[in-house]
Amino acid sequence: MPTTAKICGLTSPATLDAALGGGASHVGFVFFPASPRHLTFDVAAGLAGRVPDHVQRVGVFVDPDDQLLEAAVRAGMLDAIQLHRTAPARVAAIRSKFDREVWAAVAIKLRGDVEKARDYAGAASLILYDAKTPDDASLPGGMGLRFDWSLLDGVRHPLRWALSGGLDGGNVAEAIRRTGAPLVDVSSGVESAPGVKDMDKIATFLKAVATNQ
Ligand SMILES: O=C(O)c1ccccc1N[C@@H]1O[C@H](COP(=O)(O)O)[C@@H](O)[C@H]1O
Q1: Where are the chain's structural domains?
Q2: Which residue windows are transmembrane per the record (predicted)?
Q3: Is residue 136 annotated as part of the catalytic site, yes or no?
Q4: Is 64 in the pocket of ligand 1 (CB under 6 A)?
Q5: Catalytic site residue 130?
């Protein structure tokens, strides 16, 4: 199966359209106030309405409560919920309550971190292997950090999975070849500054994914 791509942290119609026009399979909206990509519900609703049925809308959250999830799922017409820093039992509860695909981000720095994906079997729909950010960082993702892809060598993934963390148009082809990732996810690697998406970088990234299978 060809690798598909999620463009995350979209905040404007023009950059959303660049992702859709370039063939993204997923688009991501961030609901985390500390992020430079954070969206209001009104903006999310405006963007969500432009997304065709064959593209999945993914909401990104950091250990959210039900009130935030309810409002964001409605506004963003979310098909999937991406959870960072969220314990397996809570991931399972969210999946059951919201009855849609739930992604568990697993932060990777060392080999032992990869094993933590197993805790989400039966709880999440998909594991998102992402680079671990520093303990004192304000964001658990979206910082353009990458992890050592060789840590995924020989891993028997407990669930469907995706790769993120420090990807960009220059390294995504190698990332796909090296890991065999079925889905790649990018945010800062297609930006000109934190939170500012760049349409040319989005196009370059999606072209690299499409042509390097
Ligand atoms: O993008 C953010 O601001 C963000 C905030 C909180 C949690 C996750 C966030 N982004 C996710 O992080 C990964 C990797 O991003 P990057 O490509 O390294 O910048 C990606 O899945 C984003 O969805």
Answers
A1: 4-211
A2: none
A3: no
A4: no
A5: yes
